[in-house]
Amino acid sequence: MQLIVSLYIDEQLVLPINYQYILQSIIYKAISSGRYENNILHDNGYLYGKRQYKDFTFSCINGKYRVLGKTIAFSGMISFEVRSNNPQIIHAVAENIKKSGITFIKAHFEDVILDIKDKSVENENITIEMMTPICVYGTDERKHTVYYTPNEYEFYNSVKSNFIRKYNAIIGVDPEYDIYLSPKIVTSQDCVVTKYKGFYVKGYKGVYELKGNRKYLDFLYQTGLGAKNSQGFGMFKIL
After folding, report:
1. 108 assigned to active site
2. Which residues form the CRISPR associated protein Cas6 C-terminal domain (predicted)?
3. pLDDT digits (tens, 9 = 90+) for 70-110
4. According to the model, what pLDDT value does residue 210 have?
5. Which residue in the list 19, 21, 28, 46 is annotated as catalytic?
């Protein structure tokens, strides 16, 4: 399920250039203020061993903007999208924003347009374009984080492994079949480096082919591809 959040900026809304944490905080606050069961996302999330998974992802802010040094200034009509495999999460976010408005740091907005959609994936072979980067990483022998690129086998194998763990954590069973991701149009310009809570994170946009059982592709459409989905990574649209 999807929630489109839209609002009009009379003058301008100035945010840090890396504003994903601000959007994530807005979503968490809305969930914790709602009636979502046990606030599982604020506690440990869905667990697979020592790994935690949160059943949502979100887009960048869409709209007119200017980059001003280390900040980004939005004006006019802006919007962002939240997706989740669990309708309770979407309704909790929508209900809280409808009741309390939305606050970006110190800028508060009451007049917010909310549009809930229930788009699903209906095919087993889809061409996708990343709306936010796919983040895929592992650790080397020194336990340093290594971000994989779409030129490496580990990139696609890790996307598959992440899907299996995430599906098991959220749904409660292992998927019966694999999913397959392959590049169609991916260049060096699709590499995106951002900063989250003081740490640099690397991911890749681009156009890919995604194959698998329809319900598994739909699960990924709602929750995101790769890692760090609840930090604003892995959302895609179907071409």
Report:
1. no
2. 118-238
3. 999 999 999 999 999 999 999 999 999 999 999 999 999 99
4. 98
5. 28
DSSP states along 22-91: HHHHHHHHHHHHTT-GGGTTTTT-EEETTEEE-S-EE-PPEEEEEEETTEEEEEEEEEEEEE-S-HHHHH
User: C-alpha distances in angstroms, 236 versus 10, 83, 102, 195?
Assistant: 30, 11, 24, 20
Q: Nearest 5°: CA angle at 195, between 189 and 74? A: 80
Cβ atoms of residues 138 and 112 within 8 Å: no
Contact 64, 74 (CB under 8 A): yes
Q: Are 128 and 208 in contact (CB under 8 A)?
A: yes
The whole-angstrom distance between residue 197's C-alpha and the CA centroid of its chain comes to 16
Question: What SS3 state is found at 186?
Answer: coil
Handedness of CA 115, 116, 122, 123 (dihedral sign): positive
Q: Quick one: how far is CA 51 from the chain centroid?
A: 17
* Predicted TM-score of the model (pTM): 0.92
Is residue 129 within 8 A of residue 207, CB to CB? The reply is yes
Active site residue 28: yes
Burial 26-41 (b: 16+ CB within 10 A, else e): bbbbbbebbebeeebb
Where b means 16+ CB within 10 Å and e means fewer, 201-214 reads bbbbbbebebbbee
Q: Which of 8, 19, 36, 42 is catalytic?
A: 42
Q: Which domains does the chain have, with CATH numbers?
A: 2-117 (3.30.70.1890), 125-238 (3.30.70.1900)
CA end-to-end span of the chain: 18
